[in-house]
Amino acid sequence: MPVAGKLYTTKVLLPNYPEEAYVVIYTNPKADLFTAASQAETGTLGQNTFLAKLIQEWNFTDEKGEVLPITPENVEKSLGGVEQAYIMDALKLPQSFLAPQKKSS
Q1: Tell me: the pLDDT tens digits for 53-99?
Q2: Concatenated DSSP letters for 36-98?
């Protein structure tokens, strides 16, 4: 049985790299993550902020081989649209969830 309040994760393989690339994401993120995402900046910075909070671990490194911290800036450097689609598929959310939203006037 699932434990109320416990966060679960899954490893998502990103197949478009010559070496194994992966992220570990929450599969049942708390509602406040979605609230923050909906109130975040629109466009690339907002989606990278959302992904940086969703991803708990990854194996992307710098030129020295040290694992990069998971920040919006490093998410932008490391994950293209295809990789983001794999992550959203694992989360069972539509890719459009991360699409820039038009502000209503």
Answers
A1: 899 999 999 999 999 999 999 999 999 889 988 898 888 866 566 55
A2: HHHHS-SSHHHHHHHHHHHEEEE--B-TTSPBPP--HHHHHHH--HHHHHHHHHHHT--GGGG
Cα–Cα dist 90/86, whole Å: 6
User: Could you give the CA distance from residue 76 to residue 91 in angstroms, rounded to a whole number?
Assistant: 19
Q: Which residues of 27-66 are buried (b: 16+ CB within 10 A; e: fewer)?
A: eebeeeeeeebeebeeeeebbbbbbbbbbeebebeeeeee
pTM of the model: 0.79
